[in-house]
Amino acid sequence: MKILVGKNYDRVSEMTANIIATKVKEKPDAVLGLATGGTPKGVYKRLIAMYNDKKIDFSKVKTFNLDEYYGLSSNHPQSYAYYMKTNFFDYINIKEENAHIPDGLAQDIDEECHRYEQAIKDCGGIDLQLLGIGHNGHIGFNEPDDALHTSTHLVNLHEKTISANSRFFGKDEEVPRQAITMGIGSIFGADEIVLIASGEDKAEIIAKMINGQLSSKLPASMLQIHKSLTIIIDEPIQKHLYAEGVLKEQLKVV
Ligand SMILES: O=P(O)(O)OC[C@H]1O[C@](O)(CO)[C@@H](O)[C@@H]1O
C-alpha cells in the first residue's frame, strides 16, 4: 500500500488525474474503473482540461462505473449515468459504447449483474480502478455487512449512505434505497487501485481502513491486501493519521 499526500483537494485531484493520464498514455485502450460522488469531480475536471490541451486521448479507453441507483433511468438527474455524462463523458472523446454503467432500470437484476461482470471480463479486466470512500467505509456501494459479495449485485443502502446522498436529492424520501454495485471481487480484480479522500471528515474512516482489521463491517479494509493500492489523501487527513499514530512519520506533502 502506498500513501501519497496532496496539500489540498485540488492537488489530490491533480495527482490522481496524472496517474490516470499516465496509464492511458502507456495503454491507450486502458480499461478504467470509475467512481461517482463528490470526491472524484475534481479528477474529472482535470482530465477534461488535459483532453482540451490534447494531452490525453480517450478514443480507445473503456470505462466501467462502480454502481448505479436501482430504479433511476440514465437520464434522471441524480443517476450515476447522468452524473458521468455531465461531469465527464460529454466533454471528452470516449465512445458511448465503451462507457459502461449498470442499468438502473434492468427488469432482471440477476441477468444485469451477470451481464456487467461478463462485460468487464470481455474487456480483459480493469487496469486502473478509481475509488472514493463512504463515511461508513463503503466502496462502490458495498456496505458494511456480515458478509461481502464478490461480484456485481443488488444492495440495500444503509441509512447513513442514504442520508449522505440526500444532499443531491430534494428530499430524503427521494433517495433510492437500493443500488446495483460491483462487488468486492470485481473491484479487487483491478490491476491497480487508486482510492482518494479529502477533508477532515474522511480522516477517521481512512485511519480505520489503513489500520483496522480486515472486516466485512468495513469493506474498504479489504483493500489493505490488494497487490497495488495507492491512497491519495490531503494534508488534514495526514495530520489526523499522524496524530493517531497510524502514520509513524509525516509524509512529504506534494
Ligand atoms: O465522495 P463522496 O461524495 O464523499 O462519496 C463517497 C462515496 O459515496 C458514494 O458516492 C456512494 O454513496 C460513492 O460512490 C463514493 O465513493
TrEMBL record:
Species whose genome carries this gene: Proteinivorax tanatarense
EC code(s) of this entry: 3.5.99.6
Record carries keyword Transmembrane: no
GO cellular component annotations of the record: cytoplasm
Positions annotated as active site in the UniProt record: 67 (proton acceptor), 136 (for ring-opening step), 138 (proton acceptor), 143 (for ring-opening step)
Ranges where the Glucosamine/galactosamine-6-phosphate isomerase domain occurs: 11-227
Function: Catalyzes the reversible isomerization-deamination of glucosamine 6-phosphate (GlcN6P) to form fructose 6-phosphate (Fru6P) and ammonium ion.
Key word Nucleotide-binding present: no
Stated name of the protein: Glucosamine-6-phosphate deaminase
